[in-house]
Amino acid sequence: MRKKDFKTYxxxxxxxxxxxxxxxxxxxxKRRQALTRLYLDKATLxxxxxxxxxxxxxxxxxxxxxxxEFQVNMLDCQPVHEQATQSQTTILxxxxxxxxxxxxxxxxxxxxxxxxxxxxxxxxxxxxxxxCFRFQDWASS
Amino acid sequence: MGDKPIWxxxxxxxxxxxxxLFDNDRTQLGAIYMDASCLTWEGRQFQxxxxxxxxxxxxxxxxxxxxxxxxxxxxxxxxxIISTVxxxxxxxxxxxxxxxxxxxxxxxxxxxxxxxxxxxxxxHSFG
Lengths: 141, 127
Known about the structure:
The complex is a heterodimer of chains A (about 140) and B (about 130).
Chain A: H1 6-30, E1 39-47, E2 50-53, H2 55-64, E3 68-79, E4 90-101, E5 107-119, E6 124-135
Parallel strand pairs in A: 1-6
Antiparallel strand pairs in A: 1-2, 3-4, 4-5, 5-6
Chain B: H1 6-24, E1 33-41, E2 44-47, H2 49-57, E3 64-75, E4 81-91, E5 97-108, E6 111-122
Parallel strand pairs in B: 1-6
Antiparallel strand pairs in B: 1-2, 3-4, 4-5, 5-6
């Protein structure tokens, strides 16, 4: 792997993260049936404390989740140091904003993703290895 | 406690240790980071143990107290742990404010260190 300076490394990670986040929430809101394509087969999700593990469970979960309207207000991103991931390119992304699920009141939410790059000769596809979602107002919801 | 998965035990121990250090003596936080660690604090990036500790020690409050509302822990495919915290904090006599923090923990030479740390205040929650 070519050496990059830290800032370039971070900038590239953040651009990938922004693009991924945009696709993720658009898919969640408008093409929910396609959402699990963004996850690795063995991905795990913790949703307000509930563990959902593997594609079958994720498919069931997102199928049952009411329709959503997400508004992302903030995004933070970091590349994971290559030593920590045995040279597989990995980035951490944290998002927050508001969400309204059909039949429920609006909530503030936080979500974090561990994304892993799957590279083909022509491009890089990011997939979710780990996903954690919580309402911010957890104590009062 | 014995029934919890190992990553929950490690993650919750780390969280407890981190906030105890933070609330009582931030100068000791260096031990949990390494030179390759990254911190994103309210959107600004800090790289390396020294820069991180300098940032945390320079935060402008005398007293700080964190209260954890919820925490989640997940193993990653390469045996790291992601720990996520939602809670509230009070700095000096300022109003209580919500926060969210995420840590990536890695086992290096039998010690769990934090390689990635991301913190945000939840300023909207109390408007």
